[in-house]
Amino acid sequence: MLENIRVLCQSCVRIEKEKVIYFDPFRVDREYYDADVIFITHDHYDHFSPEDIAKVKKEDTCYVLPEKMKKEAAGLGVSKEQILLVKPGEQYTVNGLSFETVPSYNKLKPFHPKSAGWTGYLLTLGGERYYITGDTDVTKESKEVKCDVAFLPIGGTYTMTYKEAAELANVIRPKYVVPFHYGSIVGKKEDGEKFRQLLDSEITCEFLMEQFGN
After folding, report:
1. Any residues with CB less than 8 A from the CB of 9 and at least 6 apart, and which?
2. Please, are residues 17 and 38 in contact by the beta-carbon 8 Å criterion?
3. Distance between CA atoms of residues 74 and 68, nearest Å
4. Using CA atoms, how far apart are residues 162 and 153, in angstroms rounded to an integer?
5. CA distance readout (Å), 96 to 17, 121, 175
6. Strand, helix or coil at 69?
7. Are 191 and 165 in contact (CB under 8 A)?
8. 73: buried, middle or exposed (CB in 10 Å: 19+, 13-18, 0-12)?
9. What DSSP string runs through 102-142?
């Protein structure tokens, strides 16, 4: 289920299943030029990085961005047909891939207001459901997600903490959970192990983060 899946840095996930898919390319380690689809969760620099997008895009790459990033999407310099602007809480298909959007926001912190329309993605591949959250707290919508694999931020400050992320994992009960968004800009590397220890025994934690440190 986790074969050919990498977390390059922060929240940058690369999935090679059916298509080559990237979520929030950031600090990409080399030039790949292989992306069939690039998903962006919101406009913060560690999630929307044109410099890193340039390392993975190819001529016919499709781009999925929140609707409120219309200006940033136009700046990518690609045809309108290659861009899909999305709203939270909807279902879409892009380049043959079916996915749902899940609202991604802070409840009390000011960094990711719900009104911004930022989104996580629930992607179906080979009959399995993969939830890539974006920057979020534990929310009503996230607790309703049904998935096989969940990528959860655990760094705190801008997102849920490792304790809160473990709480969410124990509610939605994926088969596998992958912690990310820690160990560089926010959160400590050792938070990953603290997170794992709080999970119910039926949930398998996999550490895929390849880059730590600022």
Report:
1. 26, 27, 28, 29, 184, 209, 210, 211
2. no
3. 12
4. 8
5. 12, 15, 25
6. helix
7. no
8. buried
9. EE---SSSSSS-GGG--EEEEEEETTEEEEE--S--S-HHH
163 in Cβ contact with 131 (< 8 Å): no
Report the alpha-carbon distance of residue 52 to residue 75 in Å, rounded: 14
Query: What residue type is 188 in one-letter code?
Result: K
Could you tell me if 51 and 35 are in contact, meaning their C-beta atoms sit under 8 angstroms apart?
A: no
**pLDDT single digits (tens) 85-129:** 999 999 999 999 999 999 999 997 888 999 999 999 999 999 999
Query: Which residues of the chain fall below pLDDT 50?
Result: none
Which amino acid is residue 4, in one-letter code? N
Give SS3 for 191: helix
Six token digits for residue 27 = 């600090």
Q: Which helix (H) or strand (E) holds 53?
A: helix 50-56
For the record, the structure tokens of 132 come out as 């890539």
Closest CA to 117 of 49, 67, 44, 158: 67
Residue type at position 48: F
**pTM: predicted TM-score of the whole model, two decimal places:** 0.95
Cα torsion 145, 182, 116, 118: sign: negative
Q: Which amino acid is at 195?
A: F
Q: Which amino acid is at 19?
A: K
Q: Which two tokens stand for residue 58?
A: 């190819």
Place of tokens 């409120």: 68
Output the six-digit token pair for 6: 């990498």
